[in-house]
Amino acid sequence: MAAALLVAGCASAPPGAAHATGSPDMAWLQRMTFGVNSGALAQYQKLGRDGYLEEQLRAADEHLPDAVAHQIAQLSIGQVDAGRLFVGIAIEQKRINALADGPDKQAARQKLNEQGNQAAYEARRRELLRAIYSPAQLKEQMVWFWLNHFSVFEQKANVRWMIADYSERAIRPHALGKFRDLVMATLEHPAMLQYLDNAQNAVGHINENYARELMELHTLGVDAGYTQNDVQELARVLTGVGVAGPEPPHLRPELRGLYVREGAFEFNPARHDFGSKTLLGHALSRHGFAEISEAVDLLVRQSACARFISRKLAIYFVSDDPPRALVDRMAQTFQQTDGDIAAVLRTLFTSRELAEQAGRKFKDPMQYVVSALRMAYDTRPIENMHPVTGWLGALGEAEFGHQTPDGYSLQDTAWSSSGQMSRRFEIARAIGSGSAGLFDPEDAGTRTLGGFPLLTTPVYYSVVAPLLSAPTRNALETARSQQEWNLYLLASPDFNYR
Amino acid sequence: MDRRHFLRTGLAAAPALTLAGRLFAAPAGGPRFLCVFLRGGYDCANFLIPWSSSFYYESRPKLGIAKPDPAILDGALALDADWALAPSVRDSLGPLYQQRQVLFVPFAGTDDLSRSHFETQDSIELGQPVQGARNFNSGFLARLAGTLSGSAPIAFTDTLPLAFRGDAGIASMSMQRVGKSPFDDIQSATLRGMYAGSHLEAAVTEGLELQQQMAQAMQDEMQAASRGAITTKGFELTAERMARLMRSQYRLGFVDVGGWDTHVNEGGARGALASNLTSLAVGLGTFAQSLGEEWNNTVVFVLSEFGRTFRENGNGGTDHGHGSVYWVLGGRINGGRIAGEQVRVARDTLFQNRDYPVLNDYRAVLAGLFSGMWALSPQQLDVIFPGSSAQDLKLV
Q1: CA pair distance A92, A115, nearest whole angstrom
Q2: Which residue in B137, B171, B258 is closest to A418 by CB distance?
Q3: B216 falls within a domain
Q4: Nearest to B261 by CA among B44, B41, B60
Q5: Which residue, A252, B68, B240, B279, is the most exposed by fewest CB within 10 angstroms?
Q6: Which residue of B183, B190, B197 is in closest CB contact with A478?
């Protein structure tokens, strides 16, 4: 059936289009975006493939529909200083813990808990609004990719309050930038430091959790040849990197110059191990926080890192087992450009290998849900995101919901088991029948029923229809209502692959 | 305790030739098996406490669990002169141990030494030799399912675990979110039709069927609830639903439980680890109970990717270690004992001066168990765990 996708239809460019929009172009555009909508199609027609690629690599246009921008501006997560918030939460928790057991304490706990859940929901909502509506679709996919690569779990410690800022300051600015900057930005973010326990890592109280994952999951990959000894040495390097308290620590005069504080991030030299260290066979020469920077430089310049990151990107965009030649070329670009993510993606998106895999990669739940919403509703703003976060949860890919630091699987097989397929069909039905209440305000308390989307849009006719396989066309012909037609289209293999 | 009866159930099943001419071991009616994977590396030394070891108490000044002592509420429950159970599972596993329906295999694990969660989980689930190229599309439970006829496998997880990956489509559905199927027969047939002939055909068909079965199970639950049954949640709810499905049709199950990676604030007799253990053990008790008679025909195997550092760290937690303690449960197992190779717990017996050693390889232990349950031949065992030889711990 995947093969059917490849051989089916060769739509010619619609009259008046400046650039070709035949099936290879549309297959390419389906991977460059979370799913083609009217804006992406128009932009592609205007700029052509090269122009569109360059625009996407720069994330030149991040303009959201006004109503969506307005929703985001209203969120409380955008209106607080994150550093002060984290410190404030810690103080409040201390205060509550000191209260005598009883209803007051319980009420205070519950209130704080609700605030935390609200902050996490708002963060998920903002990510989804951008993923669905931002014209910078490649950037949005990369934001998801990096949030997954540098995964944090909202339910641990105070991470719920931190994830909005984590995405905003650690991930988004570097999503198409230098890989090294991403590593440093996540290393300096309280969400990561709390999640992987480095906030507790201090001289004499070594905690090697983050050090291990920094090499295994973030930079080198497990087979890169580092040893348990390297993990222990890197853990020593990372001592003192943690989350700031309300007041700066009292430090001996000779340490004061080495103290670093930025928002809720802190490097506390009093907790740092100043002994000499050897990492991957290299004696580290710098001192204090500079030594951490030196260690990260060493990690990201390993050829293993270039390969590890390149391969993972190719798995996400190309196939479960990406061609070695493609990964080699991407890794070469990575090393030549000192880890320039946009440059590596340019190698990927101009490759023959990507084109050869058109229509064969099964969408993961995020790609599936977002593409279905873009197909069904185009730029119409969703008011209530709860059903959408619920769907992602039901499919096992909730944002910030992966408990372990390896992130969600990028392999097709993880998302195409029997339980997954039947859930996906239920979601196809919910979107296709318009029954989820996506356009009622969140606090309305009522649900407008009866409105279902019309999926037979210009995008459908120019992008989707020419590629449909025979069994799917047959199924669509038997539909007894528009809602059922929508279900079949969104549930079809054609729509579940890209 | 008639373990011979259990064995006979397996042996009575005469090997039968299938159409393909392949020799299968057990037909429908054979034993049931549930694999419970504790992801994150659970701290086995604070579950099965080596209470005769003074080194344990030296190594864990904050986390150590008090020796068995009737005067101490939070003391461990002695199983023998060396081992004791954590108080958090006293009420759930204590009685099962008395009834010889649970046993423990300490110093168990794999020779994978990466100390990486993911690497080690993968390697255990694949069940292939640690050295050499790995086939990520061939898990040991999938190979077991392929060896048995009528094994009716299912993963009670959101995504299909590596252990069940293989060429055959295996059902998978988490027991946490289930609801009524929204599709009528025509819609189901149309949905199936779109995937006919594709490699997702089996998954789609099975998914739509599972949905129907779960809808039925939910209806039973609601009826039970209306009669005043206590509503359960978390792992206990999963366990109850697993039992419902395994009692009626599935014979080979897999489930995973997370939250064991206790680098900080692990707690001792009470706390994070203790409440996780309670929830797991209570859930398994519910599973046993809900299976009814079939519990006598069922084996549950609980494992984790590795143990943790024997010494507590500076943050009231423990780090990634090596040897673990596996659990085996079942109505007719040869339980009420500590099984497998053992060594005295002391500083000089730690692996790399840090962790429990591995004296009982998971592949050998499982091969021995499977051999006992289904009377498998050495050739069949070699398909399931290539290059491994069974270690017969007389678990069943």
Answers
A1: 12
A2: B171
A3: yes
A4: B41
A5: A252
A6: B190
